[in-house]
Write a structure and sequence with these properties.
Blueprint lengths: L12 H24 L15 E6 L2 E6 L5 H13 L2 E4 L6 H9 L2 E6 L17 E5 L11 E4 L2 E2 L4 E3 L3 H9 L6
Antiparallel strand pairs: 1-2, 1-4, 3-8, 4-5, 5-6, 6-7
Length: 178
């Protein structure tokens, strides 16, 4: 006669913990990716260059396009500022009055893109075809970049880690930055 089986069910605690941690990471990543509408929200990269840039300085409007002096430097500065990354959402939008003040009273850079640009952030910034960077005046101390399309700016503008490359390029071109 055979002896009865006495096998016990074994639980591998380490495998179970690894599975739970992996699932938690996947849920966290997925939640941010879905809300940001960007699977690569964590990437600090921005390759888009504007095709047209308008600099407003106290009511004066200077439009720059490819081939004009200063355009390449300012376009690269815009790319570098956005590529440095996004700190956080500002929770701000750009009202018509603030936009008019940005054009008439302060130094502001507005960049236009031929195709929607992908700005990676852990929140949804939309797919902008235009960006507005306040250099002096209202909101300029925040490094905010208003994103928009079709002549309208979205709410919840991102705060960039830096706009110093834009400020440096403007200064080199003879514009005020303070």
């Amino acid at each position: 006669m055979k002896a009865p089986r006495t096998d016990k069910l074994r639980t591998n605690i380490l495998s179970m913990l690894l599975a739970m941690v992996g699932f938690g990471i996947l849920v966290g990543y997925g939640t941010v990716a879905i809300s940001a509408q960007d699977a690569l929200w964590f990437v600090k990269k921005f390759d888009a260059l504007p095709t047209r840039i308008v600099v407003y300085q106290e009511g004066e409007r200077t439009e720059l396009t490819a081939g004009q002096p200063g355009f390449a430097e300012l376009a690269e500065a815009i790319r570098a500022s956005v590529a440095a990354g996004v700190s956080r959402p500002s929770g701000m939008g750009l009202s018509d009055l603030s936009r008019q003040d940005a054009y008439q009273k302060f130094v502001t850079v507005e960049a236009f893109f031929d195709t929607p640009a992908r700005v990676h952030a852990n929140f949804n910034v939309g797919r902008p075809t235009q960006m507005l960077f306040p250099i002096t005046g209202r909101h300029s101390d925040l490094n905010v970049a208003f994103m928009g399309a079709d002549g309208t700016y979205f709410a919840g503008a991102p705060i960039l880690k830096t706009t110093q490359p834009i400020r440096d390029a403007l200064k080199a071109l003879g514009f005020k930055t303070e």
